[in-house]
Amino acid sequence: MNTKEKIIDTALSLYNQEGIRTVTTRQIAQEMGISAGNLHYHFKHTEDIIFTVFEQLRNDYDQMMVLFQKKDVTFQDLLLEFTKGSYQLINKYKFIFVNFVEICTWIPAIGDAYRTLVAQREEQFISLFGYYSKLGMFRQDVPITILKGFVRQIFIISDFWSSSFAVLGGRFESDAFEDYKQTVEVAFYPYLI
């Protein structure tokens, strides 16, 4: 692992523990045992670090989307795999999900990248739904406008579930996955056959 990758790993860990507004580049450098100058050689600003972490999250989701190419599983099995994978990413990049609106306002390039990502995912999800509707596992009678709205709903659940869970009193990690899984299942329920 090179220095740049170590900076990202250390920053991710610190942001998840302490939040984006309290962690400084100096603190990241100190945690790594390197000089602030060395860190700034790789990343001039905190925003550059956060954007790189967001790009890493986006790449991890891209890898997870490969699941959609597994055409030999039932839709319910695929949904469970996707739910587990997305939940793991929510935990791995917790600070992004907890502070997503603030981050998009602070770093507009992340908001722009997110909007592009949602548009790409919309096509992928709709194609997937079409495939499974032909197999009789997903409703065929859903208008395209409803499907597009449903994809948006999936993003709302995935991207803002952790904030909702915390605000509504979720405190125990052991309950968190079950809550997330149930939230996803409830959203999909009307569309499954």
List keywords for this structure.
Arc Repressor Mutant, subunit A, single chain, elongated, 193 residues, mainly alpha
If you had to describe this structure to a student in words, what would you say it looks like?
The structure is a single chain. The chain has 193 residues and is mostly helical. The protein has two domains: 1-44, Arc Repressor Mutant, subunit A, CATH 1.10.10; 51-191. Helix content is 77%, strand content 0%. The protein has ten helices and no strands. The longest helix has 27 residues, at 108-134. The model has no long low-confidence stretch (mean pLDDT 92).
Oligomer: single chain
Number of helices: 10
Assign an overall shape. Answer: elongated
SSE string, helices as H and strands as E:
HHHHHHHHHH
Number of domains: 2
Radius of gyration: 19 Å
Give the termini distance in whole angstroms: 46 Å
Protein structure class = mainly alpha
How helical, in percent, are the residues? over 70%
Low-confidence parts, pLDDT < 50 over ≥5 residues?
Answer: none
